[in-house]
Amino acid sequence: MVVVSFAQVWRRVWLFCRRHRSASIRGVNRFRRGVVAGLVSVSAALAAVAATGGAPGAAGAAPATCTPDRQLAAADAYITALGDRTTAGAVPFARDAVRYENGLQTGFSGEQMRRDLDLHIQYSVMTAPRVLSRTVGAHGDPDVLAYRFVVPVVIGGAHIVDAPTDETFRIPRSTCLIQRIDARITLAPV
Q1: Per-residue CA distances from 125 to 38, 110, 157, 159 (Å)
Q2: What is the DSSP string of 73-110?
Q3: Which numeric CATH code is attached to 68-189?
Q4: Which of 102, 110, 116, 185 has its CB 3.0 to 4.6 Å from that of 120, i.e. a possible disulfide?
């Protein structure tokens, strides 16, 4: 592990500034903003190392124990993000997570699914889902959660249709991250 003091970082920034002076004020201001952003990043990294006691890899490590309540919280975060895109960043997807809707693969990675929740038009017409039931340990597997919920679809302020959905989440107890989602979606007139 490399330990770098704040003074060492600042000295390197100062030397870089002396070597790369910019003639334009705009360039100088842009450079200063970059330096500040870099220092904030370094400070955050140092704080993360300090918080984990300096243990390598501990900052992004999975929780030691994943209880059924934590599994439910992970799935609930996804359900909440369906209706509120501002919470998409809080959904704990595994890096290689996948999603299938009615047998068709629509999610190919955790990052892509998080981005879809935040930006995709498919989710922008949904309002907050109403959860009807949720079960941990579905099909006798402690890593599988079964949800049944209804998603109201609203376009232009008008409630167009309801989408009753059965979703199965695979959230391994070893990681507490959403690994796979299988959704069976139907449409019901209002």
Answers
A1: 38, 22, 10, 10
A2: HHHHHHHHHHH-GGGGGG--EEEEEEEEETTEEEE-SH
A3: 3.10.450.50
A4: 116
User: Domains of the chain: which residue ranges?
Assistant: 6-51, 68-189
User: Is the predicted pLDDT of residue 68 greater than 90, yes or no?
Assistant: yes
CA dist., res. 88 & res. 115, Å (int): 8
- Rounded to whole angstroms, the maximal C-alpha distance in the chain is 68
| pTM of the entire predicted model | 0.65
Angle between helix 68-83 and 110-119 (nearest 10): 40
Q: How many other C-beta atoms can be found within 10 angstroms of the C-beta atom of residue 177?
A: 20
What is the C-alpha end-to-end distance of the chain, expressed in Å?
60
pLDDT of residue 4: 40
Are 150 and 129 in contact by the 8 Å Cβ rule? The answer is yes
Rounded Cα–Cα distance for residues 25 and 46 (Å): 31
Which has more confidence, 24 or 66? 66
Q: Note the residue count of the chain.
A: 190
Phi, psi of 147 (to 5 degrees): -120, 145
